[in-house]
Design goal:
By secondary structure, the chain is α/β, with parallel strands linked by helices. The protein has two domains: 4-43 and 299-396, Aspartate Aminotransferase, domain 1 (Alpha-Beta Complex), CATH 3.90.1150.10; 70-298, Type I PLP-dependent aspartate aminotransferase-like (Major domain) (Aspartate Aminotransferase, domain 2), CATH 3.40.640. The chain is built from 13 helices and 13 strands. The strands form three sheets. A seven-stranded mixed sheet has the order 2-8-7-6-5-3-4, with helices on both faces. Strands 9-10-13-12 form a four-stranded antiparallel sheet, with helices on one face. The protein is globular. Keywords: Antibiotic biosynthesis, Hydrolase, Pyridine nucleotide biosynthesis, Pyridoxal phosphate. GO terms for molecular function: kynureninase activity; pyridoxal phosphate binding. Its cofactor is pyridoxal 5'-phosphate. Belongs to the kynureninase family.
Length: 397
């Protein structure tokens, strides 16, 4: 079941195959396969067209009038649509603002402030560096203690009446393992803490149900599976039950109750808008808007189904072709436990990764020995994956 005919059969039955034409073509003839969309998604044709329109018409013709006419409302408008399409979040709880790092700092500081008298912040040693670094810096800033988990499954062993907040990733950036977001959220809250979720590797790749899970806070980037572009602004989610007491630490004029009052003192805006700080990055938000619109058209359930099928295809090919060459599959084999990429381990992964990229297989290396095969359901095809795995086999041999 690893033949080219099987790949072609899978591509022929792919309901999302037509969406590949919605992206700017890869013009480099040396590229065999782009398997790094879980780090940077490919650009949409619609985004390029919208950017030209925004620059020529909204900015060029309407000039500063565009702020009142449309731009000021973009963070909340796009946030609401993102919440509806991908996050399972009712309107008024999601906003597009800043980078993931800044958004995480805001919600972490706010969460700790909501739990006075508790002096511990929990995260895991395998979490993405930004998450770990920020947990450490906020703990040092506020005189708190960091409690480290060896695995996300250990959260029950270290949380208790001293836990203020728990910061975890929904999908592990290395292994692609999916954490039990509803179950862990419930456990943390039963012990009096607040749960903060990093959705960078899940948003746009699998359904997320923040409201149904009763999540407290979440953050995530938009330039991976949402294809919003390099450095596109991130988002943050604050459950409505926390809005009245949500005090974010970077108070700026865009998050004030009256933006243009030029008031002497800061008064926060009601609702999620208080999470804003400075002027929204309008050009960056165009990519987010187009990425969310395409995901809405494709449907997150269909996207998830294809991500599962692509992951299973990679594992089948790896078992047949690469395991005999010293590779191991580091991602969960169970479909319901695996996110939108598959990590392959190899003792010489760093050197092999450079060789793969030089030979047109664009993957991602993660220390110490992981090669991430990123699977973007709206742009990745089964024959493309097979060609890449064949090249990996050839070069590894």
């Amino acid at each position: 079941m690893t033949t080219l005919q099987e790949a072609e059969r899978l591509d022929a039955g792919d309901e999302l195959a037509g969406f590949r034409d919605r992206f700017v073509p890869i013009t480099d003839p040396g590229v065999v396969a782009y398997l790094d969309g879980n780090s940077l998604g490919r650009p949409l044709r619609a985004t390029a067209e919208r950017l030209r329109e925004v620059v020529a018409e909204q900015w060029g013709a309407r000039l500063i009038r565009s702020w009142d006419e449309r731009w000021l409302a973009l963070p909340e408008r796009i946030g609401d649509e993102l919440g509806r399409v991908a996050l399972g979040a009712a309107p008024g709880q999601t906003i597009v603002a800043d980078s993931t790092s800044v958004c995480l700092y805001k919600v972490l500081r706010a969460a700790v402030a909501l739990r006075p008298g508790r002096d511990e912040i929990v995260t895991d040693t395998a979490n993405f560096p930004t998450d770990r670094f920020l947990v450490e810096s906020v703990a040092a800033e506020l005189g708190k203690t960091v409690r480290w988990l060896d695995t996300v499954a250990d959260v029950g062993a270290v949380t208790g009446d001293r836990t203020a907040a728990v910061v975890l990733s929904h999908v592990d950036y290395r292994s692609a393992e999916i954490a039990d977001l509803p179950g862990i959220t419930r456990l943390v809250q039963e012990r009096g803490g607040l749960a903060i979720w990093d959705l960078c590797h899940s948003v746009g790749a699998l359904p997320v149900e923040l409201d149904a899970a009763g999540a407290d806070f979440a953050v995530g980037c938009t330039y991976k599976f949402l294809n919003a572009g390099p450095g596109a602004p991130a988002f943050l989610y604050v459950n409505a039950r926390h809005h009245a007491e949500f005090g974010q630490p970077i108070t700026g004029w865009m998050g004030a109750a009256d933006t243009f009052a030029m008031a002497e003192h800061y008064v926060p805006a009601p609702g999620i808008r208080r999470a804003l700080s400075g002027t929204p990055p309008v050009l960056g938000m165009v990519g987010v808007q187009e990425g969310v619109a395409l995901l809405a058209e494709a449907g997150i359930e269909r996207v998830r189904a294809k991500a599962v099928a692509l992951g299973r295809w990679v594992i089948d090919l790896a078992d047949a072709w690469l395991v005999p060459l010293g590779f191991t599959v580091a991602s969960p084999r169970e479909d319901d436990r695996r996110g939108g990429h598959v990590t392959l381990r190899h003792p010489d992964a760093e050197r092999l990764s450079r060789l793969l990229i030089e030979n047109g297989v664009l993957i991602d290396f993660r220390r110490p020995d992981g090669i991430r095969v990123g699977l973007s359901p709206l742009t990745t095809g089964f024959a493309e994956v097979r060609a890449a795995m064949a090249r990996i086999r050839e070069l590894a041999a």
